Amino acid sequence: MTGTLALVRLALRRDRLLIPVWVLGLVGITLSTASAMYELYGTEALRQQLGVTAGSNPAFLAMLGPIYDYTTIGGILAWRWGVFGGLLTALMAMFLVTRHTRAEEETGRLELIGSTVTGRHAPLAAAVLVAALASLLIGVFVALGLIGLGEDAAGSFALGLAFAGAGWVFTGVGAVAAQLTESARTANAIAGGVLGASYLLRAVGDAAGDQGPQWLTWLSPLGWLELVKAFAGDRWWVLGLSLVMAVVLVGVAAVLVARRDLTAGLLPTRLGPARAPASLGSAFGLAWRLQRGMLLGWTLSLFVLGAVYGAVARAVEDMLKANPALEKVMSQLGGAGAIVDVYLASILGIIGLFSAIYVVQATLRLRVEESDFRAEPVLATSVRRVSWVGSHLVFATLGVVVVLAAAGLGAGLVHGARVGDVGGQVARLVGSALAHVPAVWVVAGIALLLFGLVPKLASVSWAFLVVFLVLGQLGPLLELDQWAMDLSPFTHIPKVPGADPTATPLVWLTVVALAFAVVGIGAFRRRDIG
Amino acid sequence: MTAAISVSGLVKTFGPTRALDGLDLTVREGEVHGFLGPNGAGKSTTIRVLLGLLRADAGTAILLGGDPWRDAAALHRRLAYVPGDVSLWPNLTGGEVIDLLGRLRGGLNEKRRKVLLDRFELDPRKKGRTYSKGNRQKVALVAALASDVELLILDEPTSGLDPLMEAVFQEAVNEERGRRTVLLSSHILAEVEALCDRVSIIRNGRTVESGTLADLRHLTRTSVSAELAGAPNGLASLAGVHDLVVEGQRVKFEVDTDHLDGALRALVSSGVRTLTSQPPTLEELFLRHYEDELPKVTS
């Protein structure tokens, strides 16, 4: 453990921008969401109304979890933003840990440090400390901010520390994942997979209803965040679960560190083929090799996500049938079928945003290849620049069609099986999912434009995606003006199924995406590589 | 004789830095051309302009009769490039990378691939991320040397190779002599001396010297030490003799190579018992060109 503090200082110095951006960004979104709620749910009656509609709606249950207390803004915030805030805290913690352990080891920088007076466990300890501390900061700032807004002090700390708890658990998950493989990318993928599974487990558990497997929520670290019941009883002992889990995971990681060599992973590296297969003989063949794993992973994940959300759709209908008065009101608004469609349209909207993450990853692979000096040897062969860009772009643009079709297929199969119309629902939901493709292409276009014009800033594409996400998810809540909402390409997608499927915005979005792509590729053809 | 590479007045700036400042370079067809210069002199920048990866700000560059920027893809079919710092795909094996690069260039000589893998003692089944720096370099070298191309552009190709493998590399390049053109950038003088027909020396983005090793030796001094029968005679006043040390009948001095004749006559007139002379090394040539850049040694 010798040298841990020195390494903590090094990490804080390297992340002197990254950590404040994460912490302040997350705290800022949380508190501004809370302030907006004072407007939206300012009166007792408005809150009551929300409680009745949101409390038993399986769609909301699956996406956001149950609402335990709708009489206070704190309680509403814990429901509306709790799982997502925890998810983002967990994401930060996980990235921080792998960044300061496996990524350092992979690049060889840790070797330099390992040769100085630092203990074998010091890098892991330092990374864990930094991530745990950043998570705690988020929790404390959220709590203090909410108290400042006038919320109950105990509840504020319960919610803040629940965020921190999610961060701590995924500090541990990241620490273990970093020991398993030799590459930081794979470590992040493993930890991200665990995070995705946690979200899904609690989604199924929350939406299960009294007869279903509600206990699934107890298996998910993100579920614990809800089960703390901030502002609705403050069950502090549930926070203990997160803490114990985090300590156990970090302990496991520490044992693994002691058992392996520097730079080696725990999962064995096998020898590969001595010759390249016939498919690996062109720019496209190389891109296929580099991109196929990610495409497969995203296709399967979104298929499962679509299926899980699809499974809940029927429950939306059941809920209405159980409440004749409500059903009558709804049928005047367009019928129970329309409500199910609104639900399906909103989950496909979220899936559309998720698929944009894949598209940015697939497009920015170009920049990764360039900045890691692997583009240069390829472009020094007979591969044209346009072909090289195109070989990766195929995966971004057509890959997302596959990914979204898989999501629609998953939702259609499960929902169709439950309503007894598999063929019809599959066709309808695959079609509706694919309606998001043009918006996602615009995101790919933005990434390509940045890559061509200002390659060093290519990763700013992520910032655009976050803005689109915030506009889409929080825009209506924050009552943003329409012009602001219109900045996101996703705003322009018709809310299918249900809404009138007009093709005009889809055509326009495609044209915009194409224009971005043409300018981006044109700039790339004329610029220096490196 | 036709030129495989002909560059004149090449300028490339990166922001405020002028990486290339009117560089000239001519590489004749079939020769092994040494491209010498200290770190940061502009060797890699020149090579990257020749590969069409960077766009020159001014000057002309002709590569295999074409424009390296405009005709990049077509020209790249006829050349193979080994970068100074080879970065491999972590998930691809060395063998896969060799095949891939060969196919992208338009052909691989199967027999040479096998022979080279053997000689470089490279296991092609290992994944990219598990190779050491030297082994990554070998992957790129095998891929380049086994390709059916007329021009090899090698940017400090032996950095990271052990002496044994450096010898294997020199042997392999020697076999290419006459069959293909080789541009070899290096700051390892022994390597250039052993391999190159002609040399260009650059500094701060400009060519300071260019010619055959024999040409360049005229600019240098030969060191001579001798044991004479009598006292040395008139050596001190001879033009072109430097650093003369006389210890009784033993003399040591350096002489400009074009004044060697006169110096030897002076020695012979005193009677020569033993004589050793050392031809100028590129090391000295190099030091003389860069001596103003070397840190001044103070005692």
> Which chains share the greatest interface?
A-B, 36 and 42 residues
Rg of chain B over CA atoms, rounded to whole Å, is: 23 Å
CATH architecture of the largest domain in chain B: 3-Layer(aba) Sandwich
Uncertain regions spanning at least 5 consecutive residues of chain A: none
Report the sheet with the most strands of chain B, covering strand number, pairing sense and barrel closure: 6 strands, mixed
What is the domain total for the residues of chain A? 2
- In the CATH scheme, the class of the largest domain in chain B would be Alpha Beta
Give structural notes:
The complex is a heterodimer of chains A (530) and B (299). With 530 residues, chain A is mostly helical. Chain A has 22 helices and no strands. Chain A is globular and about 70 Å long. In chain A, helix 2 (18-40) packs parallel to helix 8 (122-148), helix 14 packs across helix 15 and helix 15 runs parallel beside helix 19 (437-453). Chain A starts with a helix and ends with a helix. Helices cover 76% and strands 0% of the residues of chain A. Chain A has helices at 4-14, 18-40, 44-55, 58-64, 73-100, 102-107, 109-114, 122-148, 153-180, 184-207, 221-227, 236-259, 283-321, 324-332, 335-371, 375-379, 385-419, 422-434, 437-453, 461-478, 482-486, 504-526. Chain A has two domains: 1-38 and 82-267; 281-530, no CATH class. With 299 residues, chain B is α/β, with parallel strands linked by helices. Chain B is built from ten helices and 13 strands. In chain B, strands 5-6-7-3-8-9 form a six-stranded mixed beta sheet, sandwiched between helices. In chain B, strands 11-12-10-13 form a four-stranded antiparallel beta sheet. In chain B, strand 1 (3-14) and strand 2 form a beta hairpin. The longest helix of chain B has 14 residues, at 163-176. Chain B is elongated, with a radius of gyration of 23 Å. The model of chain B is unreliable at 294-299 (pLDDT under 50). At the A-B interface, helix 13 and helix 16 of A face helix 2 and helix 3 of B.
